[in-house]
Specification:
Strand content: 5-15%
Structural class: alpha/beta
Number of strands: 5
Strand order of the largest sheet: 3-2-1-4-5
Distance between the termini: 25 Å
CATH architecture: 2-Layer Sandwich
Order of helices and strands: EHHEEHEHHHEHHHHHH
Number of domains: 1
Radius of gyration: 19 Å
CATH superfamily: Ribonuclease H-like superfamily/Ribonuclease H
Oligomer: single chain
Amino acid sequence: MNPTFVFDIETIPDVEGARRLGQLHDLSDEDVAQVMFHQRRQETGSSEFLRHHLHKIVAISVVLRLNDKLKVWSLGTLDSDEAELVQRFFDGLQRYTPTLVSWNGAGFDLPVLHYRSLIHGIAAPRYWDVGDENRDFKWNNYLSRFHWRHMDMMDILAGFQPRANAPLDDIASLLGLPGKMGMSGAKVWESYLAGELQSIREYCETDVLNTYLVFLRFQFIRGQLDQAQYQAECQLLKDNLVKENKPHFSEFLTAWNASI
């Protein structure tokens, strides 16, 4: 298997950015966020989901499958700022040139990463290459929707038809996978305000595990893995989760095994 880099991000409102844009300097973070949500409801009529450029990244979780190794973790530490998380993400792409895998990454995660790397001034030449530096990237790069260097599983499985998009939690559950565990994306801001960053990182890691397992099943149905290889990849992940011996991994593994 080619180096594979499966990722997911969790975000909160960029209250500092909103202060600059809206002259909200006298308000607390929580109050600024409420203003942001209110303005978004006025724009959309119902949804509070903020525009991409007003999200701040607080967690990036990854499954890295490289050679005979597999690793699941969140980039940086609890003390890492956003710039470090984004830098580490693009450093990984620069180092390994992996197949990048996401769920709705093209629609959300990557545009957010674009804006945050722009704000922090983080260079990512390999990611942005469309053939200027490496001719191979002209025909297979991270930016083209129909190339395979970035595989947005939601987009691919929907046949690139937005009306056919499905939530990760639904697809994972239909496949007998654990699906969402611990919280949802809508609860991240509330959890962040409560100082529960570790819980956010753990939630992000279980999301990326679901994405990786959907990816493996897709690799099987499109003939990139045969039955034995597919089972071996699943077992490798199970062995890794057992070895890590972390409560949220054990919970994920228990739910996964119970559905088989």
